[in-house]
């Protein structure tokens, strides 16, 4: 087939992968008139003012980040508070080159009411510091439910000081949902607004929403973060493990040498310590299976994918589990499995092992409750 290009963004048209640039359903190509063709993304943007995320390779993304670094701009980094380490854009601090940064934590609707927002805010700032980033401010939003959007818009206006605003984030963090909310806010106020996707002839995929005569909000493509658990489960399983609404906590009083399995995706061994209360925060539909530590290896060997399900797979292989070891030094601690949920435990001095699919972030933090 002769190579076709989208007249909106210049990307080469392809019909194989909806998540990648230039995707057009084969059926629309056969209906095409006079060789004028839009990729699905530009079509939606043109006709419905709706943004769809596409994935780019890291090289292409770096080129965009370089562009941000060369501009005096406000950078909005959107992260999924449920999958913090899976939301981090590698090398962001280096690339944005000292530009101001605003951190937006999305998906607050999933958190139990008992989560203390101030503690969450502090934890997010501290975590970002580990990546060399110091945000001017932190906004907590639910792009899905529309919470916190007014406050975010006010923050953007306060900090941008007439400059362009770049929105950056990994795929799955809810970036498109948020950008669509932002576009909606602007188009409610101004009817003449035209959102554009442009970068003709390149694969650089940028969407601009004009703010005033000389500045715009620029939506950059989502970058793939391979540490996301989302990449190692099928779409069906992803639905099962993704919380859809506020998480309900479960309480387990455990003695040492007991184990909790979180479906077939993670395992927590309480190796040593006094009797402890473990509060689980995972998707309500995920089954927590309790057993004795001495039986846990055998159970995993014989029941992964059966009693212990769902499991994470990589190229049809059961994913290797990585062990993370913790000694609890503070009263009230969370052990977090990024993208899955967390355990809160009280008391100190316990030895805990957590097993999670290799590459998925597991960390400790002062409890948010
Ligand atoms: P993108 O890849 O970053 O553009 O992410 P999307 O906007 O496509 O969203 C990824 C997934 O997260 C989708 O299943 C959304 O429904 C979900 N999502 C987005 N925002 C929220 C939110 O505020 N709360 C919840 N619970 N889910 C959200």
Automatic annotation (TrEMBL):
CDD domains: YqeH (cd01855). SUPFAM superfamilies: P-loop containing nucleoside triphosphate hydrolases. Residues 62-226 form the CP-type G domain. GO terms for molecular function: GTP binding. Pfam families: MMR_HSR1, YqeH-like_C. Coiled coil: none annotated. This is Ribosome biogenesis GTPase YqeH. The lineage of its organism: Bacteria, Bacillati, Bacillota, Erysipelotrichia, Erysipelotrichales.
């Amino acid at each position: 087939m002769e190579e076709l290009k989208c007249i909106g963004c210049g990307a080469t048209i392809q019909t194989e992968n909806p998540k990648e640039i230039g995707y057009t359903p084969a059926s629309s190509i056969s209906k095409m008139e006079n060789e004028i063709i839009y990729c699905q993304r530009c079509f939606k943007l043109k006709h419905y003012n709706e943004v769809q995320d596409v994935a780019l390779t890291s090289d292409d993304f770096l080129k965009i980040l370089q562009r941000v670094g060369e501009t005096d701009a406000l950078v909005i980094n959107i992260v999924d508070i449920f999958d913090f380490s899976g939301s981090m854009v590698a090398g962001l601090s280096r690339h944005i080159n000292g530009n101001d940064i605003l951190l937006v934590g999305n998906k607050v609707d999933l958190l139990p009411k008992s989560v203390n927002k101030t503690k969450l805010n502090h934890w997010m700032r501290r975590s970002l510091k580990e990546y060399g980033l110091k945000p001017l401010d932190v906004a907590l939003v639910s792009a899905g439910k529309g919470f916190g959007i007014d406050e975010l818009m006010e923050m953007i206006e306060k900090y941008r000081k007439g400059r362009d605003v770049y929105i950056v984030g990994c795929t799955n963090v809810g970036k498109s949902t948020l950008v669509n909310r932002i576009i909606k806010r602007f188009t409610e106020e101004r009817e003449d607004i035209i959102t554009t996707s442009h970068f003709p002839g390149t694969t650089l995929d940028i969407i601009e929403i004009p703010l005033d005569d000389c500045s715009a909000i620029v939506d950059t493509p989502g970058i793939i973060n391979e540490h996301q658990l989302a990449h190692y489960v099928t779409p069906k399983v992803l639905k099962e493990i993704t919380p859809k609404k506020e998480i309900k906590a479960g309480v387990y009083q455990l003695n040492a040498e007991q184990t909790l399995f979180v479906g077939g995706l993670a395992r927590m061994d309480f190796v040593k310590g006094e009797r402890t209360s473990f509060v689980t925060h995972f998707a309500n539909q995920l089954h927590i299976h309790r057993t004795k530590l001495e039986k846990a290896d055998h159970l995993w060997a014989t029941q992964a994918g059966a009693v212990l399900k769902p499991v994470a797979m990589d190229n049809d292989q059961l994913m290797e589990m990585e062990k993370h070891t913790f000694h609890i030094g503070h009263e009230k601690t969370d052990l977090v499995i990024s993208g899955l949920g967390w355990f809160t435990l009280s008391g100190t001095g316990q030895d805990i092992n957590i097993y999670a699919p290799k590459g998925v972030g597991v960390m400790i933090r002062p409890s948010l409750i």
